[in-house]
Specification:
Elements lengths: L3 E2 L3 E5 L5 H10 L1 H4 L13 H16 L4 E7 L2 E15 L5 E8 L8 H16 L4 E6 L4 H9 L3 E12 L2 E11 L5
Parallel strand pairs: 5-6
Antiparallel strand pairs: 1-2, 2-3, 3-4, 4-5, 6-8, 7-8
C-alpha cells in the first residue's frame, strides 16, 4: 500500500506502526473533535487502543472494504495532522462508499483538508473504480461543508437524525460525488 502524494501532503495508508502518532493526534485534538464525534472510550486515545483499530483498518484496506489514510505534511512527516477515508465500500453494481475526514485544530483553514480529500477521491474513483462517494455532514459543520463543496460534492438532501454524535441523534446533509459513467 503506497501513500497518496499531493503538493503538500502524504496520505499514509492505515498501518499499526502509526499507533503512537494517531494516539497523539487524537489526544491533542480530543476537545476540538468532541462536539462532532461519537463518544469515545478512554482506550481510543492511547497507542494500544489505536494499534487495535489500525490493525482492523489495515485488514479492511486489504479486503477493499475501507480505505483509511492519515495525513502528514511532506516537509514534516513525523506528525499526523488529519485523516481521510473511504468507508463502508459496497462493490458490484453499486461501487459506492462513505467519505469521512477530520483535520487537527491547528491546521484548519489552510487548504490541507481540501487537498487531501481531492486526492483521495480522485484515487478512489480513478484507481479503485468507485462510482459514488457520499459525505454526510452536520449542517452546523460549515468548514466540512466547504471542503465537500470545494471538492465537487453536490448536495442531495437532508437525513434527519442520521448519526448519534456526542450522545445526540444529529441531522446530516447528504452530499455526493459521482465518478464517470464509463468506469
Amino acid at each position: 500500500m503506497e501513500p497518496i502524494e499531493t503538493e503538500r501532503l502524504l496520505l499514509l495508508p492505515a498501518h499499526p506502526d502509526l499507533a503512537w502518532k494517531t494516539a497523539a493526534f487524537y489526544h491533542k485534538n480530543r476537545d476540538f473533535f468532541a462536539p462532532l464525534d461519537p463518544q469515545r472510550e478512554a482506550s481510543f486515545f492511547i497507542p494500544e487502543g489505536q494499534q487495535v483499530l489500525l490493525e482492523a483498518e489495515r485488514e479492511q484496506f486489504e479486503q477493499r472494504q475501507s480505505f483509511r489514510f492519515y495525513l502528514v505534511l511532506r516537509q514534516q512527516p513525523g506528525e499526523i495532522i488529519g485523516l481521510a477515508g473511504l468507508n463502508n465500500i459496497v462493490w458490484g453494481a453499486f461501487r459506492s462508499c462513505f467519505l469521512g475526514y477530520k483535520l487537527g485544530e491547528e491546521f484548519q483553514h489552510q487548504g490541507y483538508m481540501s487537498e487531501g480529500v481531492m486526492a483521495l477521491c480522485r484515487w478512489g474513483l480513478e484507481k479503485q473504480g468507485l462510482h459514488r462517494i457520499e459525505a454526510n455532514i452536520m449542517p452546523r459543520n460549515l468548514p466540512s461543508i466547504a471542503v465537500a463543496e470545494r471538492c465537487g460534492f453536490q448536495l442531495e438532501g437532508m437525513s434527519p437524525k442520521y448519526l448519534r454524535i456526542a450522545g445526540v441523534w444529529e441531522d446530516h446533509l447528504h452530499f455526493v460525488l459521482l465518478g464517470p459513467d464509463e468506469i
